[in-house]
Amino acid sequence: MTMQLAPNGAHFFSDTAALTGRSLKHVTRSLDTIITTSLMPVAFLLLFVYVFGGAIKTGSHGSYVDYLLPGILLITVATGISYTAFRLFLDLKGGIFERFHSMPIARSSVLWAHVLTSVVANAISLAVVVLVGVLIGFRSGAGIGAWLAIAGILLLFTLALTWVAVIPGLTAKSPDGASAFSYPLIFLPFISSAFVPTASMPGPVRWFAEYQPVTSIVDTIRALFTGAPVGGDIWIALAWLVGVLVAAYVASMAVYRRRLA
């Protein structure tokens, strides 16, 4: 099989737009996917606020839902990208890739269509979770600039994890295997500052929690929500996000070329 190269940038963008439209139609015709990806984060949000929240001391002056929501947003994205890997696996096994690559389209547009669909679907899920948070008491004094910064961080986080999801989507042997990789990512926020301050954790766990990427990302989003100084956390968070994004993109494209060579 010969994979066609795009003759120019316009070809790549038009191909990606057309394939993204196709992928988004599948999502809009199956809204249960978005409902499912929102359901678990919302369940965590309600569980921790109404069951565990009264026993958890965060040391902050706001309500526990204000402290909790940034971590729940990351869990929402980690849940959503499992469906990206699943849809990618189905397209690959169903012969869709071979059909597209028999046409004169940009070789990477097929992957980018899945990635952009993931961004849109996760944005909807994030909006649902924020809305539920507002309904149960979440309040933010963030201005427009802070909200844009939060949106940018969540976009980078979604892109980074989606490109990570591409790898199992291309290499898994079964649908369950394609989506199962997301489980560690979903539970990583539990060993961070997302639910409780890291100071309350025992030594080795505290060390891991303080130096893993989720803590700096959560602390940055939390500070932006409350209008507090973000300090150096934002640069650590951005370094992690850009590093993971670049590494995952390079690895995904290498696997893609090898898988369809």
From TrEMBL:
Cited InterPro entries: ABC2_TM, ABC2_TM_bact-type, ABC_2_transport, Nod_factor_ABC_transporter
Transmembrane portions of the chain: 34-56, 68-90, 111-138, 144-166, 178-196, 234-256
Limits of the ABC transmembrane type-2 domain: 32-259
Domain of life: Bacteria
Encoding gene, per UniProt annotation: lieB
Keywords annotated in UniProt: Antibiotic resistance, Cell membrane, Membrane, Transmembrane, Transmembrane helix, Transport
Family: Belongs to the ABC-2 integral membrane protein family.
Name of the protein in its database record: Transport permease protein
PROSITE patterns, alphabetized: ABC_TM2
Main location, first listed in the record: membrane
